Amino acid sequence: MLKHMIGAALALGVSAGAAWADWAPSGPIKLWIGFGAGGETDTLGRLIGKEMSDATGWTVVVENKPGGGGIAMFTQLATVPADGQTIGMGVSMPVLVNLTVRADQVPFTLDSFDYLASVASAQLAIVARKDAPFDDLAGLLDHAASSDGALVGFDAKPQELLLNVLNKDGGALRPVSMKSSAELVQNLLGGHLDAAFNAGTHIPYLDSGELKMIASANAGRHSYAPDTPTVREQGYDIYVDPVFYIAAPAGLGDDVQSVLSDALLAAMNADTVRDAIQNALHTEPSGDGPEATRAMMDDGMKNVATLFGK
Amino acid sequence: MPDLATILAGFGDAFTLLNLAYVLFGVVIGQFVGAVPGIGPVMAMAIAIPFTFALDPLVAISFLVGINKGGLFGGAIPSILINTPGTPDAAATALDGHPLAASGKPGKATRMALYASVTGDTFSDLVLIFLSAPIAILALRMGPVEVCALMLFAFSILAGLIGPSLLRGLVAAVLGVLCATVGLDPEHGTPRFYFGWFELYDGPSLVAVAIGMLAVAEILRRMAAVTRDSQPGAIRVQGDGDDRLSLAEYLSCRFVMLRGAVIGTILGAVPGLGSTAAAYMSYAATRQGDDGGVPFGKGNIKGIAATESANSAVVGANLIPLLGIGIPGSISAALLISAFKIHGIQPGPLLFENQARLIYGLFGAMLMANLTNLIVGQASLRLWVFAIRAPTSVIFPSALVFCIVGVYLSTGGMFGVALMFIAALVSLAMSACGFPVIVFIIAFFLGEGFERSLSQTLVILNGSSGALLGHPIALVLLAMAIGLAIWLGRGGRGQPG
């Protein structure tokens, strides 16, 4: 017994010594996920948490804080102490949209956080069934004009706004709200929609020849479909770029911010997580650190303001 | 259909000792988290996924399948033994399960649940294995208009559960739908009734509300009763030997279980309704055929057979759209997809073509998990039935702690716990005033999906009711909904919770 106690005391002494050299967490790090269990954010967050814990020896506790596309989580994150023990992972778009549309009701701003890392950006496409009588946005709009409008499925507010921009010259696209990429693909295949937005579920159907891609809704083209032009290239100055990112409450201090940021970037570039990002999102880990992530959010604010016509 | 060698190789991959060990481990975890109110198999699967990364894909998926299947039956255990469902799916099982257990036959009640659960599950697994491709193609015909009609059909089961007062039943149903409208509206994303709480943006958590109204309300009621009349245990356990389930009793439920399994399989193949609705639908149908034996609601084993066969059948069938066309039919199917994905296996239309051996391995694992569920269930039942011999002053406070922990974990904090307690108080007030809580809960569960499919339907029909004529399946479902409501309403003014 005594031996154990001495051992424990020694272990404590050693870890206290290590703390002088560099910042290290004084207890478990909580990684909050702004969505419920089972989504892409959840899976990626849990993988990053596990990898970070394996690599650093820290205990990382992953907790789901769903609500409002991450707003509930970030609201809470802004109020906890900035000691590096609590960090949160969310998606840029819902945060930027809420800060643009109802800034007076959102209890935080972009300055409420210190940004740690961007994980990856989701690739958003507009797709249609292979047998649809159009191959690009102009064709889709013509098809809509010549029939009783065209039904276009979407699953997030910015996509609906993008459709409004496409409709600005009297277009007849009728937006249909759905819950997920999977539901959108299902309704496309079943012939219940003419076209739909999609963030990845569609890719295997491009390979099998059941769907075709009409446009990339991101700022750039997609790696798996380099020949399909973006919405911008097709003449509408608009795009939607959802980025998964990790932040902490503002006031971390430079040393804490860089230790955490380095650990997160190392974790997401580990082979297992890199593979998972590639498999789940069909894209590379972004590798952006604190400054680039903050810049991404600032640029995003401007783009979303355009999207909402503000 | 792949060649026989691939099929046999797939099954061969599944039936290994390592796989069996992981399925067993999964089933044990699943039965435990299912029995603990609030956590549930979905939460457990989400937590387990990163840890399966180091495993072989088939082993990882077998483990997750084990958790899922174990969890389904696990939810029925507290539902039957202490009238507090461990998962929302098991709520209907309490209707007859608890009265039977309380009359001194907890072993009979829980065994019926176990056998019915495994029977329903195996039925839908076999449908999945042999018929997933054609059924998935049929399910594709179900667009938003048809799903909206199916939702109305599901609502019509409420007529059979509404209880003695039509007016109170309708009030409960309307309140349930009203609560389901809290949060962002499905069409334009405008927040409604959220009072500045961002936690309510996605609507009140189903888990928190269901556990609060069904489990916590019952626990509080029982804890209040204990202070007046202290009993030695939650239920009496007789020693007269009629606590087993005979083969004749099991066989007497065969048609009930078959109907439950068919209802569960159909609802599982069409995403959106879920196993809770399937259980109540099967129960409502079974109660119509009262055979003059033990009245329903007083401990009729057919009531248990109906609900457990239906809610378990949903799970296998949820994989039909996944394997047939590559689309997940439920959250747990979506979790399986993410497990596929992180192992580099792309779900989608080519899944069967590219990964036939793995899919047949998955089928093997599912059947193995059913058998394991049956065997582990036998053992764990004895343990649970023994555990509830503890004094009520121990059982109900511990159950309350589990509810709090489970809801805290799955809703992400104290907000969900507060919501759970509010829901419990609302539930107590409702039952004190004679409003049927079950009707409220089902209306609340179906409300969100109904609103979404209604808004989609309105866009698709473009304001013209004549356009409905282009949707014959929807018209048939609507006619069936009206017919069912009348049939159930006439016979079913019964005695539900």
TrEMBL record, chain B:
Q: From which domain of life does this come?
A: Bacteria
- List all membrane-crossing ranges: 122-140, 152-183, 203-220, 261-283, 319-337, 358-377, 383-409, 421-446, 466-488
Per UniProt, what is one Pfam family of this protein?
A: TctA
Q: Which key words tag this protein in UniProt?
A: Membrane, Transmembrane, Transmembrane helix
Q: Which InterPro entries has this protein been placed in?
A: DUF112_TM
Report domain DUF112 positions. Answer: 20-441
Q: What is this protein called?
A: Tricarboxylate transporter family protein
